[in-house]
């Protein structure tokens, strides 16, 4: 298989047979592409400045050279605009992929938490919990009655029945 067909068909990649690249692999590639395009942007910006300087240098003395420099500058500016649009699209895609990866991780962790809660509640019986809560309420009532009985003043002689 030729190198070009491997590139377009994804041959030889680490993700072959898994149904696509992992989010980390895709993010790494997107970042590499962003870096490459940023370097190309810088290169084009310096070329534009250079062509502008050449056009100024030739000015009215050599109109043909000045016009050629301005035409090259315009081509470089067009390429720069295309790269700006491509970078914007790549940044949007990278952010969307990062958000999707984050959402996937959050969902996975929520699943783990749900499993843990299920395991914790495995040994709990709702009827036993209801009985326990009734016992606690009864004991609180008894404690309150005892507290009330102790806190009332002993009125010796007031409550004698003749």
From TrEMBL:
Q: Please name the InterPro entries in this protein's record.
A: Snf7_fam
Provide the Gene Ontology terms for cellular component: cytoplasmic side of plasma membrane; cytosol; ESCRT III complex; late endosome membrane; multivesicular body
Where is it predominantly found? cytoplasm
Q: Which domain of life is it from?
A: Eukaryota
Q: Name one GO biological process term.
A: vesicle budding from membrane
Query: In this record, what's one Pfam family?
Result: Snf7
Mark out the compositionally biased spans (Gly residues): 9-20
Enumerate the subcellular locations listed in this protein's record, separating them with semicolons. Cytoplasm, Cytosol; Late endosome membrane
Name the keywords, alphabetized: Coiled coil, Cytoplasm, Endosome, Membrane, Protein transport, Transport
Question: Region (Disordered) spans which residues?
Answer: 1-24
- Topology in membrane: Peripheral membrane protein
Q: Which family does it belong to?
A: Belongs to the SNF7 family.
Q: What's the name of the protein? A: CHM4C protein
Native species: Drymodes brunneopygia
